[in-house]
Amino acid sequence: MARIPPAVAAVRLAVRRALPADGLVLVACSGGADSLALAAAARFVGADVGLVTVDHGLQAGSAERAAELAAWASGAGFAPVLVETVSVAGRPGGPEAAARTARYEALAAAAERAGAVAVLLGHTRDDQAETVLLALARGAGPRGLSGMPARKGIFVRPLLDVARADTRKACAAHGPAPWEDPQNSDPAFARSRVRGKALPALVEALGPAVVANLARSASMIAADNEALDELAAAVLWKTEARLWTTEQPALDTGVGSELSQGGWGRRWLLPDKLEISDLSGMRMAVRRRVLHMWARELGAPGGALSHRHVEALDALVTDWRGQGAVHLPGGIRVVRDHGALVRVP
Question: Which residues does the annotation say bind ATP (predicted)?
Fold first, then answer.
């Protein structure tokens, strides 16, 4: 029996550990080396594996590439094979953010139509390290420094502990020739500059272990975040414990609300006001998480809700000087009134 190349074995093992026990899984595949290696491994170790590719329509020939990838997937035994076409124009944020939002919406919709229990994403350890560096550069807090989660809703990232070099070797061993997205090396994009210059400079200065160490730091911060978020949620639930309903939550895509979809088949209805007396005695790390969660549930978009908004809410609690309303993304206004933070029209 021919020996399995170590890179192929590493990718297969990572996928095997991440696959759900049963049910259809879809591999999100762009045609790049990482997602092709993921697809080949999932097809090898999984029993019920389909593939979905998203055509953003941003480059000439994208529809043809999507069709070629779909044809390969069908011939390789993936079922179903789905091609999702999205429009990025007119979406808020920069081109990267707009494309990412459109892609995740399309993947979640495809999974719901197909009845998939998970969508596998091909982000690697190197992607995680790049994400942490980008978060550091923009002054992100613990939530940003935790990087990409291994699991969020239906989205699963099996390869966060696998090096990009290994996915490329695995793709070369078992897969079609990958497509190299020119945007991955375009210096107009911050991630491309980190990938092409910043991270290699760190590796040269500090050694190759820096990539794994950045990814490991993200994992440890994510564990701390989870504990603090659970504590903050418990405090928030206790504040208004009467506001429970038995409404069954919709499919959790991992994109929307963090609190409204619980693990007990219930939906949490948060109040339009929070008592200052409940907030003022909390440690800052917990209180600000409570305020962040509350703002999200009031309707503030997570991508636009920044630390400055949360700090302004916190100042209404801890540094009250009669200041006016805090304006949150989504046209939401919050004031301090009669010992409470209150949402106002």
Answer: 30-35
Closest CA to 148 of 85, 219, 240: 219
Residues 6+ apart with CB under 8 A from 34: 122, 123, 124, 127, 159, 164, 167, 168, 171
| Cα dist from 322 to 274, 294, 295, 316, 341, whole Å | 17, 22, 21, 8, 13
Please tell me the chain's helix, strand, coil percentages from 3-state DSSP, rounded to the nearest 5: 50, 10, 40
| Average pLDDT, integer, range 309-313 | 95
DSSP string across 3-23? PPPHHHHHHHHHHHHHS-SSS
The neighbouring-strand residues paired with 82 are 52
Peptide bond before residue 208 is cis, with ω within 30 degrees of 0: no
pLDDT at 3: 82
- pLDDT at residue number 182: 74
The response to whether 186 counts as a known ligand-binding position is no
Would you say residue 259 has pLDDT above 50? Answer: no
Q: Is residue 93 part of an annotated ligand binding site? A: no
Q: Please name every residue paired with 54 in a beta bridge, in sequence order, or none if there are none.
A: 84
To the question of whether residue 31 is assigned a binding role by annotation, the answer is yes
All structural domains of the chain: 6-212 (3.40.50.620), 223-344 (no CATH)
**Rg value, the chain, Cα:** 22
User: In 3D, which of 39, 69, 71 has the Cα closest to residue 54?
Assistant: 69
The whole-angstrom distance between residue 79's C-alpha and the CA centroid of its chain comes to 25
Question: Is 87 annotated as a binding-site member?
Answer: no
Q: Any known ligand binding at 30?
A: yes
pLDDT-derived band at 79 (thresholds 50, 70, 90) equals very high
Burial 242-281 (b: 16+ CB within 10 A, else e): eeeeeeeeeebbbeebebbbeeeeebbebbebbebebbee
pTM metric for this prediction: 0.83
pLDDT attached to residue 185: 75
CA-CA distance, 36 to 40, in Å (whole number)?
A: 6
- From CA 335, how far away is CA 17, in angstroms rounded? 48
How high does pLDDT run on average in the chain?
Answer: 86
